[in-house]
């Protein structure tokens, strides 16, 4: 095993396997790369010849962009490529060039500059000279990547200069030897039970050296801009340079390049200096005039290049709530006076045209789709950056409003239209205005994400919160089609084609727009309906009443004002609150329905889909009940009468289907909307829609919230902070206004104590969200010079109990005099009189009004700390992330009441917080989804190929800097690890950590999980020291983000207890056992594993008596979980026997005074590295095993039902032998189905060889709950598809033969009862379909609870982590005695278990 792992080289070598490469787009072992890449030789333009790997599908401009990133070329620009004596067209494809083959020579050609490209070249030079590092990322408010700093190994100067990784192997071997001899103990603040939370350790100083000073000054010359006669001779710019030696020079920028002129500060002489060369690249000229610059510039060119994923800019700004420790003293920008930054801001792009042009790109081939996705992402990220800059410029007062309305000022800046929106009393004032802006963004996201609707466009949209003000930003809409001269023509030719105010009209354009809107309504489950317009006309609509459909001057159809696209939430509608006097008892207990702070409470799209699925379950159940009442299911399905048709019609009517012959669920977005009236003829449809919306609202209370609580109860990787809690709730369609109801549900639960971490998060989220609203209004009364002081004062009032502001004394007056403001400038500021108790009352009042909670927040911050275990540091982090406040990096002591813990100098910045549209990465996501399905089936080889393909596609679209790319690389790492490819797993996981830090945040919960997995893979490669660093880093982050009292801390502590070798091992293992017991009870699987780990550690210490106690507890738990005959129970019994024998030997040898023999017996039970690794793999969920046979028994019963129904109908079951073997059960059929005999001949899979698993009986599956909790993709539990290929073909055959009645169309299930067609056929379909779907539909609608009977497979939205796992400890002692799988259905030969082989090959 070690040979295979070591083959990948050292740390950097493994890293460059996956995250380096010429273009930053390569992935490890990608088949596409091998097939399409080849080397060419690059020469010319004054650079040393070098080789470049190019892709056949690249355009010439792609090759140029790749070249510009190379150290050999940088910072040259304005280059073109020439081949065979002719310059290449930038838009030509490389594969279309004749004669271009591997090894061909391509020349770089220096092109003449234009005024614009000369400025771009200077900007490129400045980017290189600034050499941004982690400190610069913090200064700009961006989340840095700390992996390089964390894993940096110190080598000698000679070693570090070696190429090709020799020093890396040397440093790797050094870390291995150090890990055993000089194992440093973890710091005190990381030990279990410590209450110290140092922030300085979160962001350690970078291992990268500080950028040297190249020049004293670089700015535009005082003679700039060139006078007219010099412009006509080609002078673009005059630049003044002061070198490090103190020499002052003036440089001219011209079309051919840069040269020294003869100007001085006193005299203008633009003629070239006598000894000046003409250089195409600016740095070449600087090297010529300054030896010091040449020396330092050569150093920076030869420095080790970081992987592209660490240095390329992220598509969107990921905020860091902590800034550098001394930002005010180190902030120096000697190049800012060159003016190239300001020049870019003067250009005003047409954002709408850029976005729509990207959407209109062709998508016939994979290459075209990738190019389209990449262009869309680039345009949207540039738009979001412009929105951030525009918000700062507008709110800071640098832009005058374009309208005269002080209540609703509108601004034009940088091609953006920015406004706050009108505060309508109908929608609820300021709260309603903010809700409308947020819902407009959600509506635009919904319409823009629809597939197959290329003809319907939305404007580029984002919302941004800055300094307490929310601005909505949109690209400028195109003018309406038609001109002023066409006033006499029809309204259709003037653009407004659809809407309440469009009026009656008829035109081909209108018909096409209505077809597009009808398609969108079907995809969004919106019902076509009729409303009464203000002029009394009846208008049919597919959208909310506010929406308008336009034909723009660019010939495109636009839909605007979609903020009420989703149906209303009847729980918070005033109309329902006044009508409903006969609410059910549960609703009355919950205080619903009630009025809300604004009238724009809408259901989430996730809830709409879940509700439709729920109604379909009711529908199928009702069809069966009606058929049973009318003579029995079988008789009705086979008899030639209309009973089946009538049953379908009756069920449609009962469940509220909008059609009476098929199940089709649609909701009306205008029901319960204020100001909307319906014609009397629509009363029946309106009443039905009101009923459906009330049921959907009740569905949140009765199903979704209890389901969320149950999910948290079972999940080992529950939410850790506000962001992950919000994501988990939104996945189930639960709006955050239901946080109070979540608190009530947890309080009523009998497992309230086990849910304390969720209660802590929910209460903290209520507190911070209410605080943010108070903070937004607080900032409106603060003038700009006092912002830092006001924000620090607010935070002190919030977090320090009974904080009272000190009167402005002499010290403050002295400070204000020094700063140039008059003494006592803040004496009369209203914000300075705010006290802690006043602020607390305001926050509590908002929480009670918004979340229907009474006394959950208590009387002050200490109540939250004592009653719920909340950390003030975690609250501070959440507040900063939600408001954009950035604090200085230092340790804050928030319990100090004598002195303000946060001062004005600690507030570094307020950063705009942007919410924006998420652009799709369609092909990459399809490949990733296919890989997840393969993983769930256990087909690891297939999943590995699909994951590599997905990683390659993510690299092509977004350079891997995307959350989904992070989850993809993490899953790739786990699959590769299970296949025995430890080096590849380590490389992919390194990349996943860097992406997570930069795209999600250095302290995001997903980053914590990625560091944990990286620690496991590091340990698998023998890098124990680095594994310890990664695991300790993860523990530091979870302590800061949440605190120690969380289930995932138990997982971390178990791994740390296995990896560490000092006296702290026992502390971590005991803490893991304590946490697992308190969260999951004594009979949970993780608790049993913790008991075993503690027993194992005590054996290594020679404390056999305590080890026996803990192993007995583990044996009791295993017996309760799996039964007496389960293999896991047998392993535990065996280990307990071994401990007992050793204890007897120790007692005997002690009585004989044989100390040496005692040491030998202790040594015999010291665990091996392979065993420790396997235990870490099981604890972290990388590998799991089946818990029991119950799910298999359920599947067999289900197959028996299906076979019986088919026999009744006289239909032959496809693949009958397989079905009969499955029904019979037995080991032989299992072996044959998995190809077990072949596995035995081949000697087992690599995973079995490498990880000593040949004796471990298990079903391989992957727990991807981090992806589930972070990216919103729900993967079905492994056990649902664990029969892999064995049932796949059979079920395909069933579907083909049965032509089942239930069909899925656009996310809705239809049941067709074709009235005049063959009724017998319909009855057969209903019968066979229902027989086929009885159990499945119940599972889909969450009626089958994961109560142990179904092994956690009941709830389709449950994360795979709910599925229990088991581990075998056969290798703990040196003599394992497990038989190779006889007599147990779950046992198998060579690690092949229950229809899934260990390397994922399942026979189809």
TrEMBL record:
Query: What Pfam families does UniProt report for this protein, alphabetically?
Result: CLU, eIF3_p135, TPR_10
> GO annotations under biological process?
intracellular distribution of mitochondria
For this UniProt entry, which segments traverse the membrane?
A: none
> Is Cytoplasm given among the entry's keywords?
yes
Location of the Clu domain: 329-573
Q: Where is the composition biased (Basic residues)?
A: 1-13
Any GO molecular function = mRNA binding
Compositional bias segments (type: Polar residues)? 157-183, 1320-1331
- UniProt keywords, alphabetically: Cytoplasm
Q: Which InterPro entries match?
A: CLU-central, CLU_dom, CLU_prot, GSKIP_dom_sf, TPR-like_helical_dom_sf
Q: Which GO terms describe its cellular component?
A: cytoplasm
> PANTHER family from the xrefs?
CLUSTERED MITOCHONDRIA PROTEIN HOMOLOG, EUKARYOTIC TRANSLATION INITIATION FACTOR 3 SUBUNIT EIF-3
What name does the UniProt record give this protein? Putative clustered mitochondria protein-like
Origin organism is Scophthalmus maximus (Turbot)
């Amino acid at each position: 095993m070690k040979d295979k792992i070591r083959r990948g080289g050292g740390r950097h070598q493994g890293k460059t396997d996956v995250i380096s490469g010429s273009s930053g787009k390569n992935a490890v072992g990608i088949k596409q790369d091998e097939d399409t890449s080849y080397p060419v030789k690059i020469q010319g333009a004054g650079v040393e010849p070098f080789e470049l790997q190019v892709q056949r599908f690249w355009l010439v401009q792609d090759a140029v962009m790749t070249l510009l990133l190379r150290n050999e070329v940088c910072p040259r620009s304005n280059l073109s490529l020439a081949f065979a004596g002719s310059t290449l067209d930038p838009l030509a494809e490389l594969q279309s060039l004749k004669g271009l083959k591997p090894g061909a020579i391509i020349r770089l050609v220096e092109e003449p500059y234009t005024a614009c490209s000369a400025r771009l070249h200077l900007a490129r030079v400045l980017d290189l000279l600034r050499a941004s590092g982690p400190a610069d990322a913090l200064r700009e408010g961006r989340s840095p990547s700390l992996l390089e700093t964390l894993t940096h190994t110190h080598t000698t100067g000679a070693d570090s200069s070696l190429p090709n990784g020799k020093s890396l192997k040397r440093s790797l071997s050094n870390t291995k030897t150090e890990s055993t001899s000089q194992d440093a103990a973890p710091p005190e603040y990381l030990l279990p039970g410590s209450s110290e939370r140092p922030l300085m350790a979160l962001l350690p100083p970078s291992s990268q050296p500080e950028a040297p000073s190249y020049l004293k000054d670089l700015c535009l010359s005082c003679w700039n801009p060139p006078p007219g006669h010099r412009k006509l001779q080609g002078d673009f710019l005059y630049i003044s340079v002061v070198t490090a030696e103190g020499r002052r020079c003036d440089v001219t920028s011209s079309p051919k390049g840069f040269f020294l002129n003869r100007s001085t500060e006193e005299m203008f002489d633009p003629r070239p200096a006598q000894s000046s060369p003409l250089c195409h690249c600016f740095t070449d000229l600087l090297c010529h005039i300054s030896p010091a610059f040449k020396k330092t510039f050569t150093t920076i060119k030869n420095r080790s290049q970081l992987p592209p994923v660490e240095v390329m800019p992220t598509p969107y700004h990921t905020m860091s709530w902590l800034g550098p420790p001394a930002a005010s003293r180190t902030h120096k920008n000697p190049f800012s006076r060159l003016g190239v930054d300001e020049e870019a801001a003067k250009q005003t792009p047409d954002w709408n045209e850029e976005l729509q042009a990207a959407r209109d790109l062709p998508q016939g081939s994979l290459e075209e789709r990738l190019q389209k996705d990449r262009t869309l992402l680039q345009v949207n990220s540039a738009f979001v950056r412009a929105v951030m800059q525009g918000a700062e410029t507008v709110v800071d007062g640098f832009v005058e409003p374009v309208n005269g309305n002080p209540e609703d000022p509108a601004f034009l800046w940088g091609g953006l239209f920015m406004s706050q929106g009108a505060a309508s009393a109908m929608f609820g004032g300021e709260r309603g205005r903010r809700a409308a802006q947020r819902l407009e963004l959600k509506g635009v996201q919904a319409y823009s994400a629809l597939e197959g609707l290329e003809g319907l466009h939305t404007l580029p949209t984002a919302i941004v919160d800055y300094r307490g003000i929310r601005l909505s930003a949109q690209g400028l809409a195109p003018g309406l089609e038609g001109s002023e001269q066409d006033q006499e023509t029809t309204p259709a030719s003037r653009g407004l084609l659809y809407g309440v105010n469009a009026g009656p009209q008829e035109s081909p354009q209108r018909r096409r727009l209505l077809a597009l809107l009808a398609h969108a309504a079907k995809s969004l489950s919106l019902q076509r309906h009729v409303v009464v317009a203000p002029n009394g006309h009846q208008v049919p609509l597919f959208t909310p009443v506010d929406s308008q459909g336009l034909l723009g001057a660019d010939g495109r159809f636009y839909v605007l004002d979609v903020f009420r696209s989703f149906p209303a939430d009847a729980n918070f509608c005033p109309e329902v609150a006044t009508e409903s006097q006969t609410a059910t008892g549960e609703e009355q207990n919950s205080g619903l329905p009630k009025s809300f702070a604004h009238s724009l409470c809408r259901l989430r799209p996730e809830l709409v889909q879940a509700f439709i699925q729920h109604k379909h379950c009711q529908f199928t159940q009702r069809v069966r009940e009606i058929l049973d009442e009318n003579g029995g299911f079988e008789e009705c399905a086979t008899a030639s009468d209309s009973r089946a048709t009538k049953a379908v019609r009756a069920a449609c009517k009962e469940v509220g289907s909008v059609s009476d012959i098929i199940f089709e669920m649609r909701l009306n977005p205008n029901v319960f909307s204020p100001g909307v009236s319906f014609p009397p003829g629509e009363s029946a449809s309106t009443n039905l829609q009101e009923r459906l919306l009330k049921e959907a609202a009740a569905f949140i209370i009765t199903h979704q919230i209890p389901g969320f609580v149950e999910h948290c109860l079972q999940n080992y990787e529950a939410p850790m902070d506000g962001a992950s809690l919000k994501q988990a709730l939104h996945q189930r369609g639960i709006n955050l206004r239901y946080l109070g109801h979540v608190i009530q549900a947890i309080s009523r639960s009998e497992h309230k104590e086990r849910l304390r971490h969720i209660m802590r998060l929910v209460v903290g989220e209520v507190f911070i969200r209410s605080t943010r609203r108070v903070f937004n209004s607080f900032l409106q009364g603060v003038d700009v010079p006092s912002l830092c002081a006001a924000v620090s004062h607010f935070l002190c009032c919030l977090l320090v109990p009974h904080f009272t502001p000190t009167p402005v004394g002499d010290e403050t007056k002295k400070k204000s005099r020094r700063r140039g403001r008059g003494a006592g400038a803040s004496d009369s500021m209203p914000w300075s009189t705010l006290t802690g108790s006043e602020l607390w009352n305001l926050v509590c009042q908002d929480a009670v009004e918004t979340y229907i909670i009474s006394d959950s927040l208590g009387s002050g911050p200490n109540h939250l700390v004592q009653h719920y275990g909340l950390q003030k540091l975690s609250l501070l982090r959440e507040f900063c992330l939600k408001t954009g406040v950035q604090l200085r990096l230092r340790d804050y002591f928030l319990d100090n009441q004598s002195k303000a813990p946060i001062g004005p100098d600690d507030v570094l910045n307020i950063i705009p917080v942007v919410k924006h549209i998420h652009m799709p990465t369609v092909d990459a996501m399809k490949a990733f989804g296919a890989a997840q399905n393969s993983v769930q089936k256990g087909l690891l080889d297939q999943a590995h190929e699909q994951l590599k393909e997905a990683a390659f596609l993510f690299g092509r679209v977004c350079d891997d800097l995307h959350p989904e790319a992070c989850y993809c690389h993490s899953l790739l790492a786990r699959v590769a690890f299970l296949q025995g490819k430890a080096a590849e797993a380590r490389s992919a996981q390194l990349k996943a950590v860097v992406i997570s830090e930069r795209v999600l945040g250095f302290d995001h919960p997903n980053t914590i999980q990625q560091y944990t997995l990286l620690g496991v893979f590091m340990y698998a490669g023998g890098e124990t020291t680095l594994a310890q660093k990664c695991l300790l880093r993860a523990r530091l982050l979870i302590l800061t983000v949440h605190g120690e009292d969380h289930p995932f801390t138990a997982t971390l502590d178990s791994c740390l207890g296995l990896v560490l070798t000092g006296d702290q091992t026992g502390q971590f293992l005991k803490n893991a056992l304590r946490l697992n017991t308190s969260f999951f009870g004594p009979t949970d699987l993780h608790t049993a594993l913790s008991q075993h780990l503690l027993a194992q550690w005590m054996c290594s210490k020679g404390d056999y008596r305590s080890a026996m106690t803990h192993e007995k507890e583990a044996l009791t738990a295993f017996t309760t979980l799996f039964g007496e005959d389960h293999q896991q129970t047998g392993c535990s019994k065996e280990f307990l026997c071994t401990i007992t024998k050793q204890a007897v030997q120790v007692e005997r040898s002690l009585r004989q005074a044989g100390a040496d023999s005692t040491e030998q017996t202790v040594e015999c039970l010291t665990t091996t590295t392979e065993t420790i690794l396997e235990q870490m793999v099981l604890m972290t969920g990388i590998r799991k095993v089946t818990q029991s046979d119950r799910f298999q028994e359920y599947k067999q019963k289900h197959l028996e039902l299906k076979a019986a129904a088919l026999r009744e109908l006289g239909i032959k079951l496809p693949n009958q032998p397989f079905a009969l073997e499955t029904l019979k059960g037995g080991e032989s059929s299992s072996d044959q189905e998995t190809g077990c005999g072949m596995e035995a001949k081949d000697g087992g899979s690599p995973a079995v060889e490498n990880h000593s698993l040949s004796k471990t009986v298990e079903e391989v599956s992957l727990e991807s709950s981090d992806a589930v909790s972070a990216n919103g993709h729900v993967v079905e539990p492994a056990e649902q598809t664990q029969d892999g290929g064995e049932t796949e073909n059979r079920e395909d055959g069933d579907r083909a033969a049965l032509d089942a009645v239930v069909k899925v169309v656009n996310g809705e299930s239809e049941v067709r009862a074709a009235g005049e067609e063959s009724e017998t056929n319909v009855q057969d379909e209903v019968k066979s379909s229902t027989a086929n779907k009885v159990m499945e539909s119940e599972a889909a609608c969450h009626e089958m609870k994961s109560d142990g009977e179904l092994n956690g497979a009941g709830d389709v939205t449950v994360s795979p982590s709910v599925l229990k796992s088991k581990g075998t400890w056969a290798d703990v002692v040196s003599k394992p005695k497990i038989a190779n799988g006889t007599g147990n259905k779950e046992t198998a030969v060579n690690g092949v278990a229950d229809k899934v082989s260990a390397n994922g090959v399942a026979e189809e």
